Amino acid sequence: MSRGSVRRNSFSASQSLMPYLESFEPRSRTLAPDLRRFLRAGTPGSWEEGEEMLTTPHHARLTGEELPVDLMNTVWSGPGGVTDVLATSESTMDWIREIAPRLPQQHPSFTHWLASATPLSARMAAYDLRRLRDAVRGLAGELTGDRRQGLPPVPDRATALNVLNSAVAGAPHWPALVWRPRSEPELGVQGDVPGGVAAVGQIARQAVELFGGRDRRRLRACPAPGCSNYFLDVGRRGRRTWCSPSCGARVRTARRRQPG
């Protein structure tokens, strides 16, 4: 799929997702209550993956930040409009596969899900990740005083907190000892929820730790014109200005070209 292509996948409410949703524990379904109400009501129409303006890049975009920050940076604006890495289930699965090694050790069911996720579970993962992404972007915007324009609106603080905390509560997990043949024992993670819910919950938990810990003071919004990225300034002196060298170079070049 080309970077500029628009992907719109939809399914009618008559193609009910309720059997899929009912396979979850009740607490794991709290991340998408509006979707559940829509399906139960049998409202005519369809649920679409992403908005009409959103485009999907060819590959997952990772900025090398902590996972919650990398999630924030999956949407950006440019000359061609808004680009969203999570606009479709296919691109979302690509992104999850890219970041999977950075998640805590997962139960074998998660690895199986990555390799054989059904279309419905992939759609749900995309929906939940987009919702979580918008929530953490909203909270990051409040922390950094970000007033940048050009991206889809983010929820208010109360809604964002509910989405974030519900994602964590919906994917309970606990430590497990993993000891493979011809290897050392290691600490793993075990859970009893489907793979997509587990991935969203793991990222949400890391976001809670980020916003609730000292590192939140290191969160920055890149001030380069046209950039929508966030980053963590982990330098000893805390003087990092740009999300990447390219943003800094672009700003310096623009300054040199200004008359006078």
From TrEMBL:
Top-level division of the source organism's lineage: Bacteria
PANTHER family registered for this protein in UniProt: BLL6575 PROTEIN (PTHR35525:SF3)
Taxonomy of the source species: Bacteria, Bacillati, Actinomycetota, Actinomycetes, Pseudonocardiales
Full protein name: Zinc finger CGNR domain-containing protein
Organism annotation: Amycolatopsis eburnea
InterPro entries: ABATE (IPR010852), ABATE_dom_sf (IPR023286), Znf_CGNR (IPR021005)
Domain Zinc finger CGNR, first and last residues per copy: 218-258
Pfam families named among the record's database cross-references: ABATE, zf-CGNR
